[in-house]
Amino acid sequence: MNAIALKQLQYYWPDSETATLNIEQFCVKRGEKVFVSGPSGCGKSTFLSLLTGINVVDDRSANNCIEVLGTDLAALSNAKRDQFRADHIGYIFQQFNLIPYLSVIENVMLPCHFSAKRRARLTTSLVADAQALLKKLHLDERYFTHSVTSLSIGQQQRVAVARALMGNPELIIADEPSSALDQHNTQLLMQLLIEECSLRKSTLIFVSHDDSLLPYFDKSFRLDELNRAARIAHEIPA
Q1: Which of 7, 28, 113, 151 is buried most deeply by CB count within 10 Å?
Q2: Helix or strand (DSSP H, E) at 24
């Protein structure tokens, strides 16, 4: 069964006559770990915004099909897309997007405050599951009540990963999460993330410029090759 299925996708930003994304077909099976790469400007951020329902296609793309976990996101209202994202998708942001006025443990528990489905998938309690995740990610428990702003970059990244995994979402989206990390912390992040996704049978979409990470994944795609709009733009002479 597919976790993600795109077919005849074309996406235009408002007031643009040129498609940013033009993808004939893209499928990811449930539980797969997929590496997506490509140069700046090839549509990676737009691609992720469509997979998560932050943006949806307009009427000019009437023949498109975008299904995530068997759900047509474009058919949902804004509120239902927001709830779908909260229930089913864990997002690891490039800049972490941790809440500075919340403690480490409060940041990790946050997704379950917005999703009854994620709370229902907890194995013990909200606090206990959050603590267990942080310990698995090798964050010392003396930091659990500290502000996230007091942590190092590597420690903040572990908190961001724990938050994304909280409540066992079926789909994990990682947007260049290793770009701010050194080689040691990058390797640690990858080992822990792949291990946890495998354990939870979560599908992983990981976007990065770092091709050295390819061995961690089941398969890979270059978005500039998959996206016909990026290829056409590259072929137009300046």
Answers
A1: 28
A2: strand 21-29
